[in-house]
Design brief:
Blueprint: E1 15-24, H1 28-39, E2 44-47, H2 56-59, E3 64-66, E4 69-72, E5 75-78, H3 83-93, E6 101-103, E7 107-111, H4 114-127, E8 131-133, E9 136-144, E10 147-155, E11 158-169, H5 175-179, E12 184-186, E13 200-203, H6 207-210, H7 213-226, E14 237-240, E15 247-250, H8 267-291, E16 299-302, E17 313-315, H9 323-327, E18 335-339, E19 343-347, E20 350-354, E21 365-368, E22 380-382, H10 391-397, H11 400-420, H12 429-438
Parallel strand pairs: 1-2, 1-11, 2-8, 11-22
Antiparallel strand pairs: 3-7, 4-5, 6-7, 9-10, 10-11, 12-17, 13-15, 13-16, 14-15, 18-21, 19-20
Helix pairs in contact: 1-11, 3-4, 11-12
Length: 448
């Protein structure tokens, strides 16, 4: 009978360092968490699997901040501040930030240059004296009762261990929480996940000829579909970057063999998805060259390092943000900031949008601190798209704006927990809110 397992010999693991706060994952949540902890004077380490920060915004080529703005009673305004403002200013200083643009006539998003984002994020964390460990993949934890004692990471130098008083899981996939035994959910009631996308960027676009291509290309796709041309999903997001000869394209959709969204925690699914994503990118590029004005002389300048994952694990925390909370613009006594993005469900072959009532509503929901608190692990906070949300709630609050909010709150809460010698679940929420507001965070308290 063929062997199915190999026993790994016991070994002594070098201790990389001991910190007050360790953050896993360098996306918007991780950047904000580490920056907040560092600004509070904490010895903080951010661990990132790639050689740069930005998460899906750089590694998956999203190149677009969503959720920084909300439609507040008919007025579109920025509602995410704090660490996000510092980062945006640094990207702008590098000449890499677009002016906000209108999305579906209801809110704004803001494009950026990925190289500028990477450099600005480095500068932000170094200015706040945060240590960074790149090329490090989380592998396992050592527990001491209900506390994480150490995180093991695989690096180019080999496996090392990192100790901390407080850990913050901003991995997107909830890796650290899962390793520590915290309960989590995947998908909706039937296990369906949001479909991933392979983004890509084009150069050599004639912007004048392309015009408002984000409006005309979907119509070209509809005409082609009537002729029998198949596309991965309905509609397309094709928009210019800072330099208008460069455009980003969001149109692909990736599924597993059974037709459902692939599982971003499964290496085989990811492998097949990367290959299929590049095939879909090339096929749609050929369609643009042949059919869309302004794209005939364009070329693919970038297919990012990985596919864009929208949903995998979500921790089962002290409170699960729901779709109803998003649509009803819910308020919470333990608000840590707000989410102004609507429900954006990437379902088979389509994208479904559901909005709060606009302009009658304030257009945003508050985010409760309880959604950052996993069950069963006392020195862990979870921020970003793997925080405690239902499938529908996560379809809205997974975007970068809400992730900045959750990350800054988690880093600030870690500081307060250390200062008060308490677990994160036991800190004074009023003190957390006071500190966040002092640092420029908009809690959404004053707008009904």
């Amino acid at each position: 009978m063929a062997a199915t397992h190999i026993d790994e010999p016991a070994r002594r693991i070098p201790l990389y360092g001991e910190y007050e706060v360790v953050v896993l994952g360098g996306g918007p949540a991780g950047i904000a968490a580490a920056a907040a902890a560092g600004a509070a004077g904490r010895r903080a380490l951010l661990i990132e699997r790639y050689g740069f920060l930005g998460g899906m915004g750089t590694a998956a080529g999203v190149t677009n901040f969503c959720g920084l703005h909300a439609n507040v009673h008919g007025e579109i305004r920025q509602v995410v501040h704090g660490v996000a403002d510092d980062l945006l200013a640094r990207i702008a200083a590098l000449g890499g930030l677009n002016a906000p643009h209108l999305v579906l006539g209801r809110t704004h998003a803001q494009a950026y240059d990925t190289a500028a984002y990477k450099c600005a994020a480095d500068d932000l964390l170094l200015a706040r004296k945060v240590d960074i460990l790149f090329h490090a993949l989380a592998a396992e934890v050592a527990m001491d009762g209900d506390r994480i004692d150490a995180l093991f990471v695989e690096t180019k130098s080999g496996r090392v261990a990192v100790k901390a008083g407080i850990f913050i899981d901003c991995s997107g996939d909830g890796d650290l929480a899962a390793f520590a035994g915290a309960p989590f959910e995947i998908g909706d009631a039937d296990g369906n996940l949001l479909y991933p996308t392979m983004m890509f960027r084009l150069n050599g676009v004639d912007a004048d000829a392309a015009g408002e291509a984000w409006k005309t290309i979907p119509a070209l796709m509809d005409d082609a579909a009537r002729r029998g041309v198949a596309f991965p999903r309905k509609g397309a997001i094709v928009r210019p970057q800072k330099h208008t000869m460069e455009w980003r394209v969001n149109v692909t959709q990736l599924k597993s063999g059974n037709g459902r969204a692939l599982d971003g925690t499964n290496a085989d699914d990811l492998t097949k998805g990367e290959i299929e994503g590049r095939k879909q990118a090339v096929a749609f590029f050929d369609f643009l060259k042949a059919n869309a004005p302004g794209f005939a002389d364009s070329y693919i300048v970038d297919i990012p390092p990985q596919i864009g994952i929208r949903e995998t694990r979500r921790i089962a925390g002290a409170y699960r943000l729901s779709g109803e909370d998003v649509i009803a613009c819910a308020s919470f006594d333990d608000t840590i900031g707000v989410n102004g993005w609507p429900i954006e469900e990437h379902v088979a072959g389509d994208v479904l949008w559901r909005w709060p009532e606009i302009p009658a509503s304030r257009g945003f929901n508050q985010l409760p601190y309880r959604m950052l608190l996993p069950q069963g692990v006392s020195n862990l906070l979870v921020a970003g798209r793997c925080a405690s949300m239902t499938h529908e709630g996560q379809s809205a609050a997974r975007v970068s704006g809400a992730c900045f909010v959750m990350g800054e709150a988690a880093g600030t809460a870690a500081h307060l927990a250390l200062a008060e010698r308490k677990n994160p679940s036991d800190i004074r929420v009023e003190k957390l809110q006071e500190t966040l507001e002092k640092n420029g965070v908009f809690l959404g308290k004053d707008i009904p």
